[in-house]
Amino acid sequence: QVQLVQSGSELKTPGASVKVSCKASGYIFTTYAMNWVRQAPGQGLEWMGWINTNTGNPTYAQGFTGRFVFSLDTSVRTAYLQISSLKAEDTAVYYCAREMTMKPPHAFDIWGQGTMLTVSS
Amino acid sequence: QSALTQPRSVSGSPGQSVTISCTGTRNDVGGYNQVSWYQQHPGKAPKLIIYDVSKRPSGVPDRFSASKSGNTASLTISGLQAEDEADYYCCPYAGSYTLVFGGGTKLTVL
């Protein structure tokens, strides 16, 4: 079936980097864009941006430029979110979410299970 | 902090109807016929329940309906059930290939 499986929880120290993976299955990976969404503990959802899985071109939301990088490895149907120079405020659950249309960004019909990132010294 | 305004919480008894509003501007909610709504149960990933203002994905009960008027989108849940207790987020298109989430509304079924 169509699903997104994300990498496991991460515990990092401030200043380190992390790379979260999101492996797709059950559909043609390059057909639908991939979005990333952050949810800090006890807080709401924040749209981080999306990546065109056909061209690899990323679009970042305000507040997610500079330290955040979206990338792909289409050979293994996987999208990645890399965050550098980690700060305590990066502590959150990070979700990948599949774009449901051919006109991204629009709406997300398939979500990964989420990856919990904890940044603490 | 979202620029979109949703009530922090709403409540209703089983069988009743509740409406959740999502107020934005002409640059997001009011500017495009593209608003989606997500339901999120504690500890779970969000689930798409409405897209394109009022369309339901396959499998979403018709108890969930939505509309838009001006800069405000609304989600109505009729015939409330215990399993509807969750957080609900609106998500309109905001131009320039960007989206924005509302702050979220906690629905309590009394």
Question: Nutshell version of this structure?
Answer:
Chain A has strands at 3-6, 10-12, 18-25, 34-39, 45-51, 58-60, 68-73, 78-83, 92-99, 108-111, 115-119. With 121 residues, chain A is an all-beta fold. Chain B has strands spanning 9-12, 18-23, 35-40, 47-50, 64-69, 72-77, 86-92, 105-109.
Describe the structure.
- The complex is a heterodimer of chains A (121) and B (110).
- Chain A has no helices and 11 strands.
- By secondary structure, chain A is mainly beta.
- In chain A, the strands form 2 sheets. In chain A, strands 2, 4, 5, 6, 9, 10 and 11 form a 7-stranded mixed β-sheet that branches. A 4-stranded antiparallel β-sheet of chain A has the order 1-3-8-7, with no helix packed on it.
- With 110 residues, chain B is mainly beta.
- In chain B, 0% of the residues lie in helices and 40% in strands.
- Chain B has a 5-stranded mixed β-sheet, with no helix packed on it. In chain B, strands 2-6-5 form a 3-stranded antiparallel β-sheet, with no helix packed on it.
- In chain B, a hairpin with a 2-residue loop joins strand 5 and strand 6 (72-77).
- Chain A binds chain B through residues 35, 37, 44-47, 49-50, 59, 61-62, 95, 97, 100, 104-109, 111-114, and chain B through 2, 34, 36, 38, 40, 45-48, 51-52, 57, 87, 89, 91, 93, 97-104.
